[in-house]
Each structure stands twice: as C-alpha cells, then as structure tokens.
Amino acid sequence: MSVQVKICGITSIADALTAAQAGADMIGLMFYEKSPRHIAPGLAAQIARSLPPFVVRVGVFVNPTENEVLRAIGECGVSLLQFHGDETPEFCTGFGMMSMKAFRIRDETSLAPLPVFPTDAYLLDAYSAGGLGGTGEKFNWDLAVAAKRFGKPVFLAGGLTPDNVAAAVRQVRPFGVDVSSGVESTPGCKDAAKVRAFIAAAKSV
C-alpha cells in the first residue's frame, strides 16, 4: 500500500477538491483559532460535505474543550481527531473514534511520551519555539524511524515539500505524510501545482 497523504490546513472548498482530485487520502480542518489556517465550523462543514466519501476528514485541535470536539464531530463530519496541544491520553481517546496525537520532535527524548498515548496513530512534527505546527521546519527523520518501534502508525510532518517528500518516504517508510505550508502560496492558501506534485512524489515511492 502506498503512503497515506494528508493535506492539512485546508481553508476552502476549491483547495479541498484539488487535493482530493490529486489523490489525497486525508484533509485536515484546523479548529485552532490562533492558527492562520483556522476555519469556522460552518465552513468546515461545507468543505467536508464537498469531498468524496473516501477522503478522511481530520479535525485538528490544540487544547480544545470537549464541546468543541463534539461540535466538530457532529456538525463537520470529522472522522479522525488530531490533537496538537497538552491533551491527556484519556482526552484524546475519549470520543469513541479514531485519534492521533501530534508530538514536536527535537531529539531522542522527545519520543518518551509516545507510548503513554493509546491513540490510533502518532504524528511527528518538528519542534519550533515559535509554533505548534505548520512552521515548515523539519527534524531528524531517523527519530521518526525510531518511533516506529512503539507499534503504532506514524505520520511524518514538518518541512515536507514536493522536492523532499519522496526521500522522506524512502527513509522513514511512514504510514502517512502530512503537509501544510510546504504546498502553500500563502498561509492557508494551497498552490494547486504544489499539491499535485507533492501527492505524486509521495506515492511514487
């Protein structure tokens, strides 16, 4: 099976359809208000309804309330929950659906919390003092290889672009790759050519 590709930070129906038509397996809807890619639940619901049924709708959260997550599930049709903040293992797995915890990787010690979380998958992103994701920075991919020993699917994120994603997939052999800023013209606006090139490169391995 080829690597799963998630295009994150989708902010428009047009960008969502471009990603789906190019072969994206998942799209990420950002519910974190401080993100430049944040969208309101109403728009998220419209985007989710526009997508083919085989595309997974991922709700992306940072320290949300329970009600915020439930609203995204109920109104926006998200089917996978992705948590980027200080959520507890119990919170991440408390909604009766698939969940993924994101970890900001700086060095080997950054992997220590992974086995504490019984989520369905781990997303490994680059540590950045200035942000929680979407920074375009990469980390040492050998650490992503090491994370596979915990037995959960690993999504690789952080600094991926159409130019380096094939090399990343060859080295890490992750379950999935996640990209946001690497396929954008401006924050929140996807570049259709980059989206298509990224997906093609990732799935060529």
Write the layout of secondary structure elements.
Blueprint lengths: L3 E4 L5 H10 L3 E5 L10 H10 L5 E6 L4 H11 L3 E4 L5 H4 L5 E8 L15 E6 L14 H7 L6 E3 L8 H8 L3 E4 L4 E3 L2 E2 L1 H12 L2
Parallel strand pairs: 1-2, 1-8, 2-3, 3-4, 4-5, 5-6, 6-7, 7-8
Antiparallel strand pairs: 9-10
Helix pairs in contact: 1-7, 2-3
Which labels suit this protein?
single chain, 8-stranded parallel barrel, 10 strands, two-stranded antiparallel sheet, 205 residues, 7 helices, TIM Barrel, alpha/beta
Can you give a write-up of this model?
The chain is globular and about 40 Å long. 30% of the residues lie in helices and 22% in strands. The N and C termini lie close together (10 Å). The mean pLDDT is 94. It has an 8-stranded parallel beta barrel with strand order 1-2-3-4-5-6-7-8, surrounded by 5 helices. Helix 2 (41-50) runs parallel beside helix 3. It has 205 residues and is α/β, with parallel strands linked by helices. It has helices at 13-22, 41-50, 66-76, 89-92, 141-147, 165-172, 192-203, and strands spanning 4-7, 26-30, 56-61, 80-83, 98-105, 121-126, 154-156, 176-179, 184-186, 189-190. It has one domain (4-203): Alpha-Beta Barrel (TIM Barrel), CATH 3.20.20.70.
